[in-house]
Amino acid sequence: MDLLSMRESYQRERIMLCFNGPISRSLIEEIGKALRNYLDTQQTTPSAAMDVFAVYIEMTQNIRHYARLKGYDETQASATVAVARDEAGRYLVSAGNLVERADGERLVATVASLAPLDKAELKAAYKQQLRRPRDEEAPSGAGLGLLDMARKASRPLAASLQPLPDGRSFFSLTATL
Questions:
Q1: DSSP helix/strand/coil, 16
Q2: Residue 133 contacts by C-beta under 8 Å, 6 or more apart in sequence?
Q3: Which one is predicted more confidently, 137 or 156?
Q4: Closest Cα partner for 110 from 128, 98, 125, 97?
Q5: Among 73, 78, 95, 72, which residue's Cα sits nearest to residue 18?
Q6: Domain range spanning residue 80?
Q7: Count of domains in the chain?
């Protein structure tokens, strides 16, 4: 393993925090604390820091919930999470995980449907979703998390799906804040 190359790549990409592996509730909390401390040292505005933290928590909890729901083992339940900054100083919160292909396709389609919405439309969609009764048969939550992340983001959420040989896919989501 060439750690120097990894370090140089992280610096080039402005990655402040990166994690790859099985993700537990306590690990989500510990990485969250480290992220919060880092944002404090960067003189990030409190509202920006809260948005970055909230999006990180939403993404990682979604991954953990999905893996449990699917009964994935520790290897299948692993996540890749990165927090970086772009040239303009915006935060990029990205997370990826193994998904069943059909679930990934639905997620990518949902993210794409949110992309053309402006802030007012996202707020209206969020309020409408809040009022909708929760479908207990639904394989995931009420969709509020994606809407909330889209509302916090300064650009449309970006999602991708990479098919894997075993019939599953790797889903990636990035929020720019």
A1: strand
A2: none
A3: 156
A4: 125
A5: 95
A6: 3-176
A7: 1
